[in-house]
Structures are given as C-alpha cells and as structure tokens.
Amino acid sequence: MLNIMKKYDPTASITDIVDSIVFGPVTSRRGGRSLGVNILPPGKKVCSFDCAYCMLGRTQAHSGKGAVGWANIDLVEKGLIEASEFLRKIKMEIECIALTGNGEPTLNPEFYDIVERIMEVRDDLFSGVPVVIYTNSSKVCERSVMNGLAMADLVIAKLDAVDEELRELINHASNTPPVKDIVAGLRALRNCSNGELAVDIMLVEIAEETNLDCLEEMSEALLEIRPHCVYVQTPTKPPVKTSVKSVAKEELIKSASVIKEKTGYDVYVLLGMNPPMPIAVLATWSG
Ligand code: SF4
C-alpha cells in the first residue's frame, strides 16, 4: 500500500511517528512553541541510527533506499502555507521551525533543496522565526548535506560517544563514517555555517558500559569541533531496550560540570521536560 503523507497536521505530537510533513504547534524544550517539519516518509521510522534510547521505537529502515513517500520541496512548502493559515486562524505565533520527525532528516535525497525552500518560506511567512535542524550527524561529511545544514539558524547535532564500540552499543550506527570523520565534519560545518552549532550528548548506562566514563575524550572532540554550545541530557522516556538506563540527576549535573570545566563552552543541562539550564549557574545554585 502506498503511504500517503498529509501536508499539515496540527494535532500530531513531537514524540510520536507522524503521517504529516508539517505538524504542530508543539512545545519543545529547546525551541519553545515550534512547528515540526518531518521530511521522512510517513508512518515509519527511517534513521541511520537505532539508538537504544530512541523514543520513536526501533528503526524500520536504516537508509532511504526503497522508502516511498518522501516529502518533496513543493509538499513541504504547501504544508508550511497550510500551517501559517491555521496559526493565523487561532492567532498563535511560533518561536521556531524545527526539522525533526520520523528519524534522520538528512537521509532525504532532496535535503539541500528542501532546506533552501524552507528558508525562503520562513522569510515570506514566518519572518524572524529561526529554523532549527536536529541531526544525528551521520551524513555531515557529505558536501550537499553540510551545505544544507549550514543554511539553518541552528543545527543541534548528536554526538553520544567518541569511542567506536561505545557508539555501536548506544547508537547502533549503520553504514556511517568513523567518529573521527564525523568530528571533522562537524568542525567543517561550524566553520562554513552562518548559523549556530550545538552538540547534543545523551548520557546513558548500557550493558555495564556508560559514556559517563569518556567525558575527557568527549571534551577533546568538542574542543576540535568548537560548537557554540553543548547540551547534556539523559533519556526521559522508558528506553526501547531495557538494558539502557538513564543517569541520575546528580551524575548529569556533575558530567555537565566536567565538560564545562574542560572546554569552557556554554553547557546546558536538560532535565525532564524543563528548558535547558546553564550548568555555570546550576552547579553553583545553593537555593
Ligand atoms: S538518531 Fe534520533 S531518531 Fe535516530 S534512532 Fe537515534 S534518537 Fe532515534
């Protein structure tokens, strides 16, 4: 059966697999009141990773090969136009347009052209609203993907582990470059983009291993990338795999403090559904 993609659905949720291209407004911790843009096929998760903690469940396809129902430039534009009409009717303004949805957006074969069109539509219909792209960083080394990411106002790029074995355990990365190439790719993105780059680290315990033990190596990678800021978090929903555990709040704060100390960057902690909190203030807050 051919999957039919709705252009816009105001009722879809950011934490579920969606059947629409544009959805929301939804409330996100980092973007506030956001319109989601899903450029992956409807109704299933397509991702180059299969993270043990993914809130969308297991990956159903690791690449775009053979997938049907990709969002294209015109459908994305139509979805954004419909969303702007809906928002006008309910007299609501948004704070962010976020490329997120059913997996990894850079897998869309028309990724660059779609981002370019989103930026144009944003200028026409949502002037001043930032466009944010969430990526797992797996395709950042590809020139057209890097150029697409470089158009966004903010890229939030996942980097959970710099050790290959640990990355395999946490992210189950499929057919992706070695971590050192991804670090170099993120560095190149940082240098060629007019927007900002944030690195997003999910701290977990899994099968008696944890990325809590690798903060030194992670900090070295961050110093190479030079992001504008770093987010540190732990899963808030029960993970897909029962062998995965969230880390305790105290560990999260301690780890963020270590990264802050070693890099000097702006480091934010994401706790539960609260907005990001700067570790520089949080770590010294005595209440
Ligand atoms: S990269 Fe994101 S969408 Fe893909 S498996 Fe990991 S958490 Fe899920």
State the gist of this model.
The protein has helices at 73-89, 111-125, 143-151, 164-171, 179-192, 215-225, 249-263, 279-282; strands at 6-9, 20-28, 32-37, 96-99, 131-135, 154-158, 196-202, 204-206, 209-210, 229-233, 244-246, 266-269, 277-278.
The termini sit apart by: 57 Å
CATH class: Alpha Beta
Return the string of H and E elements.
EEEHEHEHEHHEEEHEEHEEH
> By helix and strand content, what is the structural category?
alpha/beta
Q: How are strands sequenced across the largest beta sheet?
A: 1-2-3-4-5-6-7-10-12-13
CATH topology: TIM Barrel
What is the CATH architecture term? Alpha-Beta Barrel
Count of separate structural domains: 1
Ligands bound to this protein structure = iron/sulfur cluster
Walkthrough of the structure:
The structure is a single chain. The protein has one domain (6-282): Aldolase class I (TIM Barrel, Alpha-Beta Barrel), CATH 3.20.20. It is built from eight helices and 13 strands. The chain has helices at residues 73-89, 111-125, 143-151, 164-171, 179-192, 215-225, 249-263, 279-282, and strands at 6-9, 20-28, 32-37, 96-99, 131-135, 154-158, 196-202, 204-206, 209-210, 229-233, 244-246, 266-269, 277-278. The strands form two sheets. The protein has a ten-stranded mixed β-sheet with strand order 1-2-3-4-5-6-7-10-12-13. A three-stranded antiparallel β-sheet has the order 9-8-11, covered by helices on one side. The longest helix has 17 residues, at 73-89. It is globular, with a radius of gyration of 18 Å. Iron/sulfur cluster binds next to loops.
